[in-house]
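Reopening this one. Same input as before:
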Amino acid sequence: MSGREQFVRVAEWAIEREGVLASLGLGSCVAIMLHDPKACIGGMAHILLPSKSLSHDQDKPAKFPETAVPLLIQRLVAAGAGRHRLVAKLAGGASMFAQLMTPGSVQMGERNIAASRSALREAAIPIIGEAVGGERGRSVWFHTGDGHVESRTAGGDAVTF
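Same output, byte for byte:
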């Protein structure tokens, strides 16, 4: 858990102390990132679906916000984070195929964003930054030492938050 880059793939999670957690090619998926600024530790879950009810395969808790957020909290606290100091950032949730959907229908990306926000609200963890939505995928690099996130949209600009 020190000073390295670790990739977090779909339905996976990781924690790092003063390292980098990266998720590449987030489409409708959302990266939920929790950070304790005092302990310089953070965790990321790469969620795929907004609810366990949408999947027959429920054995990966990082796949859904409702199980990913409690898992990250538990693992971060066990590694030395202060529960009351945790803050969150979100990235992803693009509507990749909006032009193919019926007008007015809710896209999977939008559902993932809403479910992630809801899980964080239920856990009483404030969201202090986001790079969500849109119609293009993005990749993110979460620097767990200071908590900043670099987000690069496919064919677009880089944003730091």
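So the earlier flakiness isn't reproducible anymore. For the record, The beta strands are 5-7, 13-17, 20-26, 30-36, 41-47, 87-92, 127-132, 138-143, 149-153, 158-160.
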